[in-house]
């Protein structure tokens, strides 16, 4: 008897060179709650053993499929044919609410202090979160939460 092929995860959250352990821990909790997979692209600004990371992720880490990638190139090598990667950037013009997310899409976020590098964000479809009150950007874990739940709403119709 052949095992059925598992459905792809709801979505993938990708953090490019994340810097703050607490933010990554919070993102991991969001992924656990949503059933999303988390991809971390090196280098990191912290260690996964850091107390701040463990405190933020709490006991949710067991519920997260976590992938570590040595570089952007290594991450790209894991993408299947037709994979869709959306770069979240304040430099985008299209809103995340109009992206038309599908099951298995990848949501890419840059490091907290500088965002995605231009060479990377310019190579991908870009979307942004509205910031009608101004400011430079949202906190990374907040941005991931807003984006991931909107993607889930679009995919599952919550």
From TrEMBL:
<feature type="domain" description="tRNA/rRNA methyltransferase SpoU type">
    <location>
        <begin position="11"/>
        <end position="148"/>
    </location>
</feature>
<keyword id="KW-0489">Methyltransferase</keyword>
<keyword id="KW-0808">Transferase</keyword>
<feature type="binding site">
    <location>
        <position position="110"/>
    </location>
    <ligand>
        <name>S-adenosyl-L-methionine</name>
    </ligand>
</feature>
<keyword id="KW-0963">Cytoplasm</keyword>
<feature type="binding site">
    <location>
        <position position="137"/>
    </location>
    <ligand>
        <name>S-adenosyl-L-methionine</name>
    </ligand>
</feature>
<dbReference type="Pfam" id="PF00588">
    <property type="entry name" value="SpoU_methylase"/>
</dbReference>
<dbReference type="InterPro" id="IPR029026">
    <property type="entry name" value="tRNA_m1G_MTases_N"/>
</dbReference>
<dbReference type="GO" id="GO:0008168">
    <property type="term" value="F:methyltransferase activity"/>
</dbReference>
<dbReference type="GO" id="GO:0032259">
    <property type="term" value="P:methylation"/>
</dbReference>
<dbReference type="InterPro" id="IPR029028">
    <property type="entry name" value="Alpha/beta_knot_MTases"/>
</dbReference>
<feature type="binding site">
    <location>
        <position position="129"/>
    </location>
    <ligand>
        <name>S-adenosyl-L-methionine</name>
    </ligand>
</feature>
<dbReference type="InterPro" id="IPR001537">
    <property type="entry name" value="SpoU_MeTrfase"/>
</dbReference>
<comment type="function">
    <text>Could methylate the ribose at the nucleotide 34 wobble position in tRNA.</text>
</comment>
<keyword id="KW-0819">tRNA processing</keyword>
<protein>
    <recommendedName>
        <fullName>Putative tRNA (cytidine(34)-2'-O)-methyltransferase</fullName>
        <ecNumber>2.1.1.207</ecNumber>
    </recommendedName>
</protein>
<keyword id="KW-0949">S-adenosyl-L-methionine</keyword>
<comment type="similarity">
    <text>Belongs to the class IV-like SAM-binding methyltransferase superfamily. RNA methyltransferase TrmH family. TrmL subfamily.</text>
</comment>
<dbReference type="InterPro" id="IPR016914">
    <property type="entry name" value="TrmL"/>
</dbReference>
């Amino acid at each position: 008897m052949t095992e059925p092929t598992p459905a792809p995860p709801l979505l993938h959250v990708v953090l490019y060179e994340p810097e703050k352990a607490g933010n990554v821990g919070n993102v991991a909790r969001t992924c656990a709650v949503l059933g999303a997979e988390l991809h971390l692209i090196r280098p990191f600004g912290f260690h996964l053993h850091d107390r701040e990371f463990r405190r933020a992720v709490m006991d949710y880490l067991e519920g997260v499929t976590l992938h570590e990638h040595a570089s952007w190139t290594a991450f790209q090598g894991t993408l299947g044919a037709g994979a869709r990667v959306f770069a979240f950037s304040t430099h985008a013009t299209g809103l995340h609410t109009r992206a038309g997310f599908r099951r298995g899409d990848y949501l890419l976020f840059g490091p907290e202090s500088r965002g995605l590098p231009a060479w990377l964000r310019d190579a991908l479809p870009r979307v942004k979160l509205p910031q009608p009150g101004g400011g430079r950007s949202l906190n990374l874990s907040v941005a991931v939460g807003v984006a991931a739940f909107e993607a889930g709403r679009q995919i599952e119709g919550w």
